[in-house]
Q: What sequence folds into this?
């Protein structure tokens, strides 16, 4: 029994059918953690990308180092670091929040790169034209660069959301009850790992296919020339 | 100094991590070429097989794959009367290789497809056989295209090896967890481990950079 739902071990099909609602509970946690981690990554990545763009080397260089460091170290270790080290400094977070934070920290290195690449991909001529029209640097960024960069940034971010979903099972090590952890617990208690773990695989396939399809639709729907911010 | 006592056990873990990375990257490369070329094959069976492999392993989580191979596969073996229990090292290498191979397959496919059509047409006009076209025309041009994403995948693979500690393999992440249980000195240990992974990733990236120069050297010779 898990989440107050009993399983029925009489036949394989009955077992699979009875644990489906339990796994779906886990899936909800998986999606929640992905979304929260995604938003942290969006914010932290923007911060890192902005700091990297500062002309002052004393700010830009450490930001570049941190980005590289976060990209090159495993999510699992970053998660353990946050989970065990933060409480030593008086910051006690629930496992779910620590996990989402770790996802966000790891992926901020990737989203920072997406922001930078998206802004750099806007043709130089656009900036030059804005200058010729006497637009201030701030207005150029808000009304010329950003609207054109957004259409390149959004689909790339969508792909990282899908990647984050696939990394959520790592949070099971700090006792977050996401889909894989739920399946593992069912397996531990019934000695049947084959059915729950196979179902998790299938549910993951479904989840990522739907998400990837969503990203593709978003990509085709976005106006190629940019989104005006007014 | 307290932290120097951690160096030895952690370096032992590093060695296991390096071994796992090397083996699984080799396995992944083989699978990437197999499935990547398979996806471009005209044989519908080979194509379907490659596409299924790529979609399943890219569409599910690595940890799910690892747990499935470790916990579920032996039970499946029992069901069909085969002994499918493997050593954790085998399971780890298999899961990492299968996972990274699926990502690599898309890189291989993309690079081979990026070779201009006219190159194939010219090869045909010069009476090259299919094998000759592949080895002498397509691959020399496709390989340098594959190298930058392969470099990223290799580093990704190194980071992913940390997950095998969850099936009780004594890699760097596992050693760190052991030491933490023993000493409770989590700040020092995890800081050291983060920098060790960072160092290994930098070395790996540099090696992949050298390899990239090596496979692209013919381009510079001509100019």
A:
């Amino acid at each position: 029994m898990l989440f107050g739902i009993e399983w029925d071990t009489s036949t394989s099909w009955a077992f699979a059918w009875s644990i489906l609602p339990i796994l779906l509970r886990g899936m909800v946690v998986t999606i929640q953690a992905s979304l929260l981690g995604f938003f942290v990554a969006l914010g932290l990545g923007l911060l890192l990308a902005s700091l990297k763009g500062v002309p002052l080397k004393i700010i830009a260089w450490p930001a570049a180092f941190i980005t590289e460091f976060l990209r090159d170290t495993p999510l699992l270790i970053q998660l353990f670091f946050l989970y065990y080290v933060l409480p030593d400094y008086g910051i006690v977070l629930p496992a779910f929040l620590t996990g989402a934070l770790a996802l966000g920290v790891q992926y901020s290195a990737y989203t920072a790169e997406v922001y930078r690449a998206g802004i750099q991909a806007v043709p130089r001529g656009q900036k030059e034209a804005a200058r010729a029209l006497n637009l201030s640097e701030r207005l150029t960024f808000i009304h010329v660069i950003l609207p054109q960069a957004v259409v390149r940034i959004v689909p790339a971010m969508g792909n990282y959301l899908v990647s984050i979903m696939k990394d959520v099972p790592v949070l099971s090590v700090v006792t977050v009850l996401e889909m894989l952890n739920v399946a593992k617990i069912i397996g531990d208690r019934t000695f049947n790992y084959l059915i729950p773990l196979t179902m998790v695989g299938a549910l993951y396939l479904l989840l990522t296919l739907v998400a990837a399809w969503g990203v593709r639709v978003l990509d085709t729907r976005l106006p190629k020339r940019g989104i005006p911010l007014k | 100094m307290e932290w120097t006592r951690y160096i030895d056990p952690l370096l032992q873990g590093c060695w296991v991590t390096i071994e796992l990375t090397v083996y699984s990257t080799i396995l992944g490369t083989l699978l990437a070429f197999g499935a990547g070329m398979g996806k471009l094959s005209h044989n519908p069976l080979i194509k379907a097989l490659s596409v299924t492999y790529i979609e399943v392993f890219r569409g599910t989580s690595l940890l799910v794959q690892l747990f499935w191979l470790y916990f579920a596969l032996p039970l499946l073996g029992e069901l069909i009367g085969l002994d499918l229990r493997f050593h954790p090292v085998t399971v780890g290498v298999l899961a990492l290789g299968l996972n990274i191979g699926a990502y690599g397959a898309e890189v291989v496919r993309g690079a081979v497809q990026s070779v201009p059509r006219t190159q194939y047409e010219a090869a045909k006009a010069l009476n090259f056989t299919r094998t000759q076209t592949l080895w002498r025309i397509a691959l020399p041009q496709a390989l340098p295209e594959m190298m930058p994403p392969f470099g990223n995948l290799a580093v990704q693979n190194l980071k992913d090896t940390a997950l095998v500690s969850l099936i009780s393999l004594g890699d760097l992440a596992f050693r760190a967890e052991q030491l933490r249980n023993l000493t409770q000195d989590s700040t020092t240990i995890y800081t050291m481990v983060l920098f060790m992974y960072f160092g290994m990733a930098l070395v790996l990236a540099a090696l992949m950079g050298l390899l990239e120069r090596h496979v692209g050297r013919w381009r510079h010779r001509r100019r």
Summary: Chain A is about 75% helix and 0% strand.
